[in-house]
Design goal:
Layout: E1 17-21, E2 24-27, E3 32-35, H1 38-41, H2 50-60, H3 73-85, E4 90-94, H4 97-114, E5 122-126, H5 135-141, H6 144-147, E6 157-160, H7 165-171, E7 176-181, E8 184-185, E9 191-192, H8 195-208, E10 211-215, E11 239-242, E12 253-257, H9 278-291, H10 296-317, E13 322-328, E14 331-336, H11 340-349, E15 352-353, E16 355-357, E17 361-364, H12 372-398
Parallel strand pairs: 3-15, 5-6, 5-7, 7-10, 10-11
Antiparallel strand pairs: 1-2, 2-3, 4-12, 8-9, 11-12, 13-14, 14-17, 16-17
Helix pairs in contact: 2-9, 3-9, 10-12, 11-12
Length: 399
Amino acid sequence: MSGSALFETFTRAPLAFDHGEGTWLVTDKGERYLDFGGGVAVNSLGHSHPHLVSALTEQAAKVWHVSNLYEIPGQSRLGERLADATFADKVFFTNSGAEALECAIKTARRYHFVKGHPERFRIITFEGAFHGRTLATIAAGGQYKYLEGFGPKVEGFDQVGFDDIDAAEKAITSETAAILIEPVQGEGGIRPVPTQSLKRLRQLCEQHGLLLIFDEVQCGIGRTGKLFAHEWAGVTPDIMAVAKGIGGGFPMGACLATDEAAVGMTAGVHGTTFGGNPLAMAVGNAVLDVVLEDGFLEDVQRKALLLKQGLASVADEFPDIVEDIRGTGLMLGLKCAAPNTKVNMALRDQHLLAVPAGDNVLRLLPPLTVTDAEIHEALDRIRAGARGLADAIAAAAAK
């Protein structure tokens, strides 16, 4: 065997981190990086948060796994807390966002089946969406680069243009079961869906007997300054997929639904071996302990404004590097004028980590616990990176 034993499915940066401290990551060589990538919006409370570490280690000393053949008290508690804080009545715990979406898709299809309409299985989705990497979720996302080479596309997904609600309405047929949308697209380039569009989708679902599914895997758990992004629009779904930030770094996800939407999810129709295990539930409950504290989300909103205003200043100063600032809360994107890969490298040279996205956008997804001082430090590094890249582009053009 030559080279790595790992599948070569990732293009990895030549960095290996030894440990993390809040908003900082430290390499095996002792170099410190300001982490504004957050493990792609996963590390909602930063690295080595003491409450999460305590919850995990305490549970690890008791029991790790028992399976869903038995009662799991932490699962019941977290489910009740999520239901109390949201539109939902029922929760199914998973290991990942893709599994949460699979559960959401199955829940919607099963709903119509038990209502006597098995022909209603199709789901309308939107261009630029990313819902996961399983065969069903890549079909839902509809992006060719993820579908290519994996055989026939899973049947049952009809895609329309981003925020094209007229097209969504025209796509509704007697076989349509649901509409699936991210209130803020993450991988698609930090694109919030306008409030009026979400309201119209809710109306269409009511009018045609469809279920509305929100994918809040990336934009949920306080990322936008509300517990869930759809709260800004005052629109509630029937089903919602959650993951990433809910585990604060521990792999977990959840599918939330109303009693009505979950009517078909009865004993034996769906399952998971690891989902909702005691370790994950201990961490998930610990994340909610922090995020639901009085004033926490309001402080996220305040810090988000500080960061967004600073980024707008960078965009004004370096229009050939940063074209615009997108997003809401601490889910922000630099719409780049230069290639986002080059901007990402320039920031990494400044020891600041970010995450590329579609539409030539670079995502900034710092922990919700980021401090004002760290925001100012990040802005200094982003400005320095933009300046260095602008100078390099100017020098290349002069040759």
